[in-house]
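Predict structure. Chain length: 131.
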Amino acid sequence: MSLKGKRILIAKPGLDGHDVGAKIITLALRDAGADVIYTGLRKSPDYIARVAADEDVDAVGLSILSGSHHTLLAQTLDELAKLGAANIGVFIGGTIAPQDTQALLEMGALGVFTSEMSLNDTLSALEAALS
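Prediction complete.
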């Protein structure tokens, strides 16, 4: 499995202060060959979109544990579109109820990943989505 040559931004939108999962996926993506940028905690969707566009990333990963994944995904996708960067895929990881997955995919999420998934399955799905 390789994500070599892919540029991926990992971000923690909203007020949630728990970033262990974001750091784990950042390291896993790096180990799989991706060039990874981690923005840190409590970033706004417009900030995330600006960094994604400026850094010319292939995808943005949002780590969300607060339950506000619908709103934060919609805002991030909207901000990317405003910047002419709607081609940047956005995937979500975190505490996400199974019944929310389909709605998030229909909103435009590239993928939805939860802590119940293995890192290998997550990386394989991202590799497939970004190829």
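Summary: The mean pLDDT is 95.
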